[in-house]
Design a protein that fits this description.
Helices cover 39% and strands 19% of the residues. It has 242 residues and is of the alpha/beta class. The longest helix is centred in the middle third of the chain and has 22 residues.
Length: 242
C-alpha cells in the first residue's frame, strides 16, 4: 500500500512547529493540515485530491457537501474536547501576557470584566482569579460555576464599563452597543479573543480605549505548544486508533 507524506499548510509559526513534529510521518491517503483559524471552503478544496483526509479547525456547509461528493474527509479537530481545552488554556495565557504588558497596575489592583463563560471565558477567568485580579464575569449561563471563580457575575447586557481597567471578550458576536461603549474610561484595555468582535473597535479606540482583536493567540504566544496540540490530535486519529 502506498503511503503519503502529510502536507502542512503553513500560515503561522504554530504550523511551522507542527511541520517539524510531523517530519517523516506518513498516512495511508493524501493528508492535509490547516491551522484552526483557517476556513476550509470550496476554494481550498479545489487543490485537494479526491479521497484525501483534511484536518482543519473550521469549514462550511458548501465545503462539506463538496468534500462528501469527492470522498474527502474533513476532520474538524476544534470539535475535540481535549484540543479545545488546551487551546483555551493557551488563549488564557496569552490574554494574561497582554494584560501584564499593557497595564501599569499589578493584577491585584485591576478590576477586570470577562464577557462570556464558555470554555475560553472560563479559562481566562480562572487564570486571572488565580493571579489575584478583582474579577467580574458577564454570563447568562453557567452562573453558579462563574461565581466559584469571580467576585461578581452580571448579565451580558446594558454594560457599564466605567468600573473596569480591563475588559476581555470571548463572545463571537456584536453584543456591545455604541451606547455601552461610551461608558469606557479613557485608557481602558479591551481585549477581544473572539472570531468576531463584540464591540465597534474603531469607536472604542476613538474614545481612548486600547481596543484590539487578538485572533489565533495561541499561535502567537506559545507556537510550539499550539502546534503540539494539533500534532497530538493528528497522532491520535491517524496512528493510535489503528
Amino acid at each position: 500500500m502506498k503511503n503519503f507524506f502529510i502536507t502542512v499548510h503553513e500560515t503561522d509559526e504554530r504550523m511551522y512547529y507542527l511541520k517539524t513534529l510531523l517530519k517523516g510521518k506518513k498516512a495511508d491517503v493524501p493528508t492535509h493540515v490547516y491551522a484552526p483559524n483557517i476556513i476550509v471552503d470550496t476554494r481550498v478544496l479545489e487543490d485537494i485530491e479526491d479521497g484525501a483526509y483534511v484536518f482543519c479547525g473550521r469549514t462550511n456547509e458548501e465545503a462539506e457537501l463538496l468534500a462528501n461528493s469527492r470522498n474527502i474527509t474533513l476532520d474538524v479537530y476544534s470539535k475535540d474536547e481535549k484540543f479545545q481545552s488546551i487551546n483555551s488554556r493557551l488563549t488564557a495565557e496569552g490574554a494574561l501576557k497582554i494584560i501584564l504588558e499593557k497595564t501599569v497596575k499589578g493584577l491585584f489592583d485591576l478590576n477586570v470584566l470577562v464577557i462570556g463563560f464558555g470554555r475560553t471565558g472560563a479559562a481566562v477567568a480562572r487564570i486571572l482569579s488565580d493571579n489575584g485580579a478583582k474579577l467580574t464575569v458577564a454570563s447568562s449561563s453557567s452562573v453558579r460555576q462563574a461565581y466559584a471563580i469571580a467576585e461578581h457575575v452580571i448579565q451580558p447586557k446594558s454594560f457599564d464599563f466605567a468600573p473596569y481597567d480591563v475588559i476581555v471578550n470571548t463572545v463571537p458576536k456584536p453584543i456591545i452597543t455604541d451606547k455601552d461603549t461610551m461608558t469606557l474610561a479613557d485608557g481602558t484595555l479591551y481585549i477581544d479573543l473572539a472570531s468576531t468582535s463584540a464591540i465597534n473597535l474603531e469607536y472604542a479606540r476613538y474614545l481612548g480605549a486600547d481596543a484590539s482583536l487578538y485572533p489565533a493567540l495561541p499561535a502567537k504566544i506559545a507556537p510550539f505548544s499550539a502546534g503540539k496540540a494539533i500534532f497530538d490530535y493528528i497522532q491520535e486519529v491517524l496512528w493510535k486508533t489503528k
